[in-house]
Amino acid sequence: MGVAAKVSKPRSRLLDGDSGLARTVRKFVEHRYLFLLLLPMLAYYLIFNYAPIFNPQTGGILMAFKKHSLTKPFSEWEGVGLKYFEMMWGKPDFWAAMRNTVTISFVRLVFEFPMPILLALLLNEVRRDGPKRIYQTVFTFPNFLSWVLVVGLMRDLLQVNGVVNGIIKLLGGTPYMFLANGSTFSNYAMLVLSNLFKSVGWGSIIYLAAIASIDPTLYEAAAVDGANRWQRVWHITWPGIKSTAVVLLILQVGNILNGSFDQIFNLINGVNRSIIETIDVYIYRYAFQQSMNQSFAAASGLFRSVVNFALLLTANQIASRLGEERLF
Amino acid sequence: MVTTKVPAAPRQSKTLRSPGDRLADGIITGILVLLTIAVVFPFYNMLLVSVARYEDIISTPLYLFPKAIDLQNYRMAVLYPNFVNSVGVSVFVTVVGTGLSLLVTTMGAYALSRKHLPYRKFFFYFVVVTMYFGGGLIPWYLVLKGLGFVDSTWVMVVPPLINTFYLILMRNYFQGIPDELEESAKIDGANDVQILFRIMIPIAAPIIATITLFYAVARWNDWWLAMIFIQDPHKIPLTLILRRMVVDATIDLGNDMMNAMRDAHIQVHSRSLQMATVTLTTIPILLVYPFLQKYFTKGIMLGAIKA
Q1: What tens digit of pLDDT does each residue of B240-257 get?
Q2: How far is A259 from B63, CA to CA, in rounded Å?
Q3: CA B190 to each of CA A6, B202, B203, B298: distance values in angstroms, whole numbers, following the listed order
């Protein structure tokens, strides 16, 4: 690559012995077209990702340590030290949201995480390509709908006069408010089932790809050795996707504080708030809906970011230590 | 386990299938068919309710099969205040947003993929760090407010311009393209911009198609940005109208529509109105889905494996 660049700009630079700065400038000039391509992207990240951290006008993340004022510029905001963090620490609803976030993530690990694997194993056992493609088409589609649409579908099915309660009534039961009740079990079940409906098919794709890369001669050898179907799944297919599963599991543990905002925000209401409100929804509530205490919301947000950062970094380190292919 | 190479035997030939095997096939098919019904049924119910007559919904405790097909609910959905406007907003955001996203993402991804880019590692980490750490909701909101995004349609286009995950997928794809192509073009005197647009983009068509569709679906589905930033009812996208109708369950027909319905003796069940709107919002996604499906598996795998 460097060779190609020199061909197009055949000036000898190496022998000039110029200063570091001049060399840097020359590098930029030489690759000006490449930087032209890079520029919009850099501007984007500076404005939308770095400015919120370091913004000199509103203090960026430093506003968590100052008393927010709508009338005065940031430089005149009163420094309050860790006041908002102490406030957060003392709030029962903050801890409830933290507990909900971790509990729901754990429930998802147990009941959602294995499902794409099982589905991939099932689909892999379908011999004919036609039905297999139909199943995959159907299972993957809901992934591309927004949570607003999915919750819309759920609301109609589960409302008092909907199909599900219609069947319950027909069987002599009383209608159940599936989406507005204080039962922990029912709320968790709704979260898990709706998320499976939306994304189990999509999640199985990566496992199907891993299965596709298994050496087919292994199956042939096993067949010759008289291995039955279950033995082939257990001794060939499963080992072939195990490493993928382990990496995804670790990454999901790292994401434990990402409280699936879109899903929960569209399902939350006054009745189930204390059960399913996660930290993301909590921060949103304090930022835009309740009391508008922006410094407090910024402090909770910063706390979440820092913990989340540590978790993600750890998870990614472990995943790479396992010698698996990663995206980065 | 013995894995000695043996002459290829067909993996599952018909003659080898035992009765137990066939039973297993039956069970597998059974499970998959049940799952298919579970996934399809909500959509069936959506269509069913969207074409149901008011009196049928009221009088039937378990409405499972259509008694009549009445498209009036769709007419009412289209007449819903700001519906037409919101479709315009959603189309604008989807078309312009996807176009700009694609342009900026492709350019950035290509530049990052070049080995001769000075400070390449630095720029890469500059991008990747944002996946791990951010300023949080409020500092981010204040930056956007300061830039005048409140009540601007562009808030749905510019702030979500780049998805870092897609950017990296695309960079990985560009990295996998053999260097010789670029080198010979350089000898012919082409610069990096020309090389990207004339040579690389056609080669990267599969990944670009994949990411186009992802961006388009994400823009069409977005409601969150509009919810936070948009007050002006004329600038609200379709998904947000739908959210207010379905999730907040606030159905505000507006005086004009109420009067028109009363004069024409039209009764529309709120469920039917909701489901008609849900259907109309789903249709565009359903239309691009075959293309999505054709590309996503291939595209995602191509991008990810070559890391």
Answers
A1: 999 998 887 777 777 777
A2: 36
A3: 13, 16, 17, 30
**Of the partner residues A4, A123, A312, the one whose CB lies closest to the CB of residue B182:** A4
Q: Which domain holds residue B274?
A: 74-305
Do B88 and B182 share a structural domain?
A: yes
If asked whether residues B183 and B51 sit together in one domain, one would say: no
Q: Are B46 and B278 in contact (CB under 8 A)?
A: yes
- Is A297 in contact with B161 (Cβ distance < 8 A)? no
Share of chain A above pLDDT 90, in %: 46
If contacts are CB pairs under 8 Å, which of residues 186-245 in chain B contact chain A?
186-187, 189, 191-193, 196, 217, 221-224, 228, 239, 242-243
Amino acid at residue number B285: I
Tens of pLDDT along B73-94?
998 889 888 999 999 999 999 9
Domain identity same for B44 and B149: no
Only one residue has tokens 């080669």, namely B203
Interval B119-137: pLDDT, tens: 999 999 999 999 888 888 8
Give this complex's ipTM.
0.87
Q: Which of B10, B40, B70 is the last residue of a domain?
A: B70
Residue A66, helix vs strand vs coil: strand
Return the residue matching tokens 């990944």. B207
| In the predicted structure, residue A266 carries a pLDDT above the cut 80 | yes
Reading the block at residue A209, the tokens are 């790809």
Tell if the CB–CB gap between A138 and B40 is shorter than 8 Å: yes
Tokens 């679906």 label which residue? B217
A166 interface with B at CB cutoff 8 Å? yes
User: Cβ separation of B136 and A302 shorter than 8 Å?
Assistant: yes
